[in-house]
Design goal:
Radius of gyration: 16 Å
Number of helices: 4
Shape: extended
């Protein structure tokens, strides 16, 4: 079990390292949107949590390995919300 967790952690680190170019592009895009005035400051309470499509669209832009880890973590959380992962 511990070796599986370590392997999962290593895969997560590798996926995160491989996604740096994509993250840099998304960061630049966000900066451009802010500079162009197309973004407004929002608190979490201002976005309706029913806007599930927004979150799905963001999720689908993540690398497949990151999506896979997120799904696994979500399943663990559903079974045990106090799980450390």
């Amino acid at each position: 079990m511990i070796l599986d967790e370590l392997a999962d952690e290593e895969r997560w680190d590798e996926a995160f390292a491989r996604s740096q170019d994509q993250l840099a592009k998304l960061t630049a895009q966000a900066r451009d949107e802010i500079c162009a005035g197309r973004v407004r400051k929002m608190g979490v309470d201002e976005r309706e949590f029913t806007d599930f499509g927004y979150y799905i669209a963001c999720f689908r832009r993540l690398p497949e390995t990151v999506q896979s880890q997120a799904r696994k973590s979500y399943k663990l959380w559903r079974v045990s919300p106090s799980h450390y992962n």
